[in-house]
Amino acid sequence: MQDSWTETEKLTAIGTMAAGIAHELLNPLMGILNFTQYCLEKTAADDPRFSVLQDIERETKRCAGIVQNLTTFSRIEKRSEEEYHKQSLPEIIERLVQLLSYRIEKEGVRFTWHVAEDIPEVWIRVDGIHQVLLNLVTNALDAVAVSAKKEISIEGYRRGNFIEVTITDSGKGISPANLSRIFDPFFTTKPVGQGTGMGLTVSRNIILEHGGDITCRSEPGGGTVFEIRLPLAAKGGPG
Ligand SMILES: Nc1ncnc2c1ncn2[C@@H]1O[C@H](COP(=O)(O)OP(=O)(O)OP(=O)(O)O)[C@@H](O)[C@H]1O
Ligand SMILES: [Mg+2]
């Protein structure tokens, strides 16, 4: 993308593209979902394929959610209250680790996580927060892929009325010039076809939507830390 585009021009172009992608992807995704649900109906619950089908159903729904996020990423909006649920952080992290375990093992990454015991459940849009953590850990996996030390950790603590989640990696780090641009739409340093540069843009909007914030500290060669702060009574919750 040319550097001289204004912010409004960029957002208009992105909005048009996102709407196009959503239109193209939502229909086939709904097809997959329907076929999966048909197969689930025809499969006994004790059949080993049943839980695989459930996985496909859940992940397809999540894809549809991601596509919908793309279409609305330039607006930070309060979602309907029904989309927010009280959820424990460890459960989300466990699901994430399950999803990424193949890549973590295959690439020999030392992955650790720790959530403080006094962390209460939080009102969050579960798919949204799952997507944020997935984006951040995927970035961390990409960053450690090219470094000798391959360590990634997630930590969760309570700080007053906020929950703080940090994702730390021992990867290649980010130069100061790039650090100021990582949340920009379409900013990527990955080869064409490997990154769209939308992961952090979407993640940041999801966190802002919850009334929280996300920051990053990094040094070239010194690894990277992303810090997420979520209010205990997130926007969608009753508090
Ligand atoms: N943990 C990290 N370590 C080093 N660089 C990172 C890290 N996280 C993000 N970056 C840098 O920020 C850029 C933008 O990240 P972002 O997730 O928005 O897009 P992407 O990963 O390139 O593509 P995708 O849309 O697939 O996520 C990356 O291309 C990379 O240069
Ligand atoms: Mg990314």
Brief digest:
With 239 residues, this protein is α+β, with helices and mostly antiparallel strands. The chain has helices at 7-41, 48-72, 89-106, 126-145, 176-179, 199-209; strands spanning 85-87, 110-115, 122-124, 151-159, 162-169, 213-218, 224-231. The chain is globular.
Q: How would you characterize the overall build of this protein?
A:
By secondary structure, the chain is α+β, with helices and mostly antiparallel strands. The chain has two domains: 7-72; 84-231, Heat Shock Protein 90 (2-Layer Sandwich), CATH 3.30.565. It has six helices and seven strands; from the N terminus they run H-H-E-H-E-E-H-E-E-H-H-E-E. It has helices at 7-41, 48-72, 89-106, 126-145, 176-179, 199-209; strands spanning 85-87, 110-115, 122-124, 151-159, 162-169, 213-218, 224-231. A five-stranded mixed beta sheet has the order 2-4-5-7-6, covered by helices on one side. A two-stranded antiparallel ribbon has the order 1-3. The protein starts with 6 loop residues before the first helix and ends in an 8-residue tail after the last strand.
- CA-CA gap between termini: 43 Å
Oligomer: single chain
Give the count of structural domains: 2
Strand percentage: 15-25%
Largest sheet: 5 strands, mixed
**What is the count of helical runs?**
6
What is the CATH topology of the largest domain?
Heat Shock Protein 90
Q: Looking across the biggest beta sheet, what order are the strands in?
A: 2-4-5-7-6
Structural class: alpha+beta
- Average per-residue pLDDT, rounded, comes to 85
